[in-house]
Design goal:
The protein has about 525 residues and is α/β, with parallel strands linked by helices. It folds into 2 domains: about 300 residues, HUPs (Rossmann fold, 3-Layer(aba) Sandwich); about 140 residues, Isoleucyl-tRNA Synthetase, Domain 1. It has 17 helices and 17 strands.
Length: about 525
């Protein structure tokens, strides 16, 4: 840094890039919202954040979808990719970049990566005979199949025989095991690390990285009869988007990534193939992976055939009287399921969370505080102060909430981070009920209680903002604070006492009108 200020720590996080053969659905939104909340949290910590998402546009699956739609693959991808970008905008996703694998910067980087692995002797020509699932864009061996079908899609796999280039993954087993042994905690939750290690220990097979039977992809730089296997192409997005092959300075600044957020179904590609590909090219492996479970609908995986695909945009539509708004939806997906485990999306669960945590706890706290400040403090928020035991306990609860929220975000556990924050909201509602300021005459005792409650609202607005950014900003403004809550910092040293007092407090409409279950 030239101005003498210390460099801010970087934080780079990614979502998977989504196939453009489907429109954005709840499952895509889930991983993306978790990534967004994590990115927002790190901005509050003061980190120099780079949050990436994008679309996966090459390969047989996309070519087939384009054929079915009667469009050229590029045209087809051009028609779907904006649906993802728009959906993320409507869900208040703050990605810093959006990569499409059909972009030139990506093609350049993929070819550079291929060439580096090839020059290192890890890519060789061979004949592939075996089983392939187009929906997964993945190879299987007999043992992987369920009743002869793909274990994920339960559909028949295809027999294929092709001359392909292979990546010699089999050479990387020991190096991967050593790397993971040296980097405990790189994969969260930790039980996923055991799964990866178990898989590597079974012995790794080489995998094919090229195709000749169709043309929708990136040609190999040394043999343009072959196009790059879509997973080799797709994984590279994480480096091509930050300048690999096109902007060396940016790449040096951003890589290695802090967290790849992924679903459990793509763990082998990300935790086995990808670090081996990087090692082969002489690039450092990622620092971390955060592996999420599936968000099921009615206990089942969403699919077009079952007809249970949930479109998140319907749920957040402000004109839908049964909707819960963007924040209601974001809060639900973050709070309902511990990240890593499978969750079950139900409309009742969504409304239940909304009414309990948002309308009754958070919304009610703000409305009570604003009402009492209006009636007993002339609408001007007093500064916090501590002269009673209950005030001391509240300040302690606030500092516990801040510490725990920090720790739980560090473990990429949004549901537990929010639980720690909501614990403070509940403690504050209890503090008001103990002190009953609405029953007292105006004066220093009421001012103390209201100042302390306002101080909590200030803290909660910051702590909850990664999950419910619009609400956090509204609370911030209603308690009279200037600027943007997103520009604040998580208070790490002095937690308590920064609400200045003397600010106009506005009641306004309910933040979360109750919904009928
Ligand atoms: N294009 C690949 C990823 C390449 S990353 C280099 C892909 N795309 S996908 O669109 O099929 O899925 C992307 C991610 O969405 C996966 O992590 C998958 O787990 C996640 N989800 C898709 N449906 C899901 C649920 N119903 N629940 C949770 N996540 C699921 O795979």
């Amino acid at each position: 840094m030239t101005d003498g200020s210390p460099a801010r720590p970087g934080f780079y996080a990614t979502t998977p890039i989504y196939y453009v053969n489907a429109k954005p659905h709840l499952g895509h939104a889930y991983t993306t919202i978790v990534g967004d909340a994590l990115a927002r949290w790190h901005r509050l910590l003061g980190d120099d954040v780079h949050f990436l998402t994008g679309t996966d546009e090459h390969g047989l699956k996309i070519q087939q979808a384009a054929d079915a739609a009667g469009l050229a693959p590029q045209q087809f991808a051009d028609s779907i990719a904006p649906l993802f970008a728009d959906a993320w905008q409507r869900l208040d996703i703050t990605n810093d970049d959006f990569i499409r694998t059909t972009e030139q910067r990506h093609r350049i980087g993929v070819q550079k990566l291929l060439q580096a692995c090839y020059d290192n002797g890890d890519i060789e020509l061979d004949t592939y005979r075996g089983l392939y699932c187009v929906a997964c864009e993945a190879y299987y061996v007999e043992d992987d199949l369920t009743d002869g079908n793909c274990p994920i899609h339960k559909r028949p796999v295809e027999q294929v025989e092709e001359e392909n280039y292979f990546f010699r993954l089999s050479r990387y087993g020991d190096r991967l095991l050593k790397w993971y042994a040296d980097h405990p905690g790189a994969i969260v939750p930790d039980y996923r690390m055991n799964e990866v290690i178990g898989f590597i220990k079974q012995g790794l097979l080489d995998f094919s990285i090229s195709r000749t039977s169709f043309s929708w992809g990136i040609p190999l730089p040394w043999d343009d009869k072959h196009i790059t296997y879509v997973w080799f192409d797709a994984l590279a997005n994480y480096i091509t988007a930050v300048g690999y092959g096109t902007n060396g300075d940016q790449f040096a600044r951003r890589w290695p990534v802090d967290y790849h957020l992924i679903g459990k179904d793509i763990i082998r590609f990300h935790c086995v193939y990808w670090p081996a590909m990087l090692m082969s090219a002489g690039i450092e492996p990622p620092k971390g992976w955060a592996v999420g479970g599936w968000l099921l609908v009615g206990g089942e995986k969403m699919s077009k055939t079952t007809g249970n695909v949930v479109n998140p945009l319907d749920l957040v539509d402000e004109s839908n009287p049964e909707g819960v708004g963007v924040d209601g939806f974001r809060y639900y997906v973050l709070a309902e399921t511990p990240y890593g485990a499978d969750g079950d999306f139900t409309y009742e669960g969504l409304i239940g969370r909304y009414n309990t945590d948002l309308a009754n706890n958070f919304g009610n706290l703000l409305s009570r505080v604003a009402t009492v400040v209006g009636k007993k403090c002339n609408g001007v928020g007093p500064a916090p102060s501590i002269t009673t035991d209950s005030a001391r306990e509240l300040a302690n609860a606030a500092s516990t909430a801040v510490t725990e929220t920090i720790e739980r975000w560090r473990d990429v556990q949004p549901s537990r981070a929010l639980e720690a924050t909501w614990q403070l909201i509940r403690a504050t509602n209890a503090y008001l009920e103990t002190n009953e300021p609405w029953k007292s005459e105006p004066g220093p005792a009421v001012d103390e209680v209201m100042g302390n409650a306002l101080e909590v609202l200030r803290l909660v607005a910051i702590l909850a903002s990664p999950a419910v950014p619009r609400t956090a900003q509204a609370v911030w403004e209603r308690i009279g604070l200037p600027g943007r809550v997103a520009d604040q910092r998580v208070p790490r040293d002095t937690v308590w006492g920064n609400y200045p007092g003397g600010l106009t407090v506005v009641k306004g409409d309910p933040l979360f009108p109750r919904r009928q279950a």
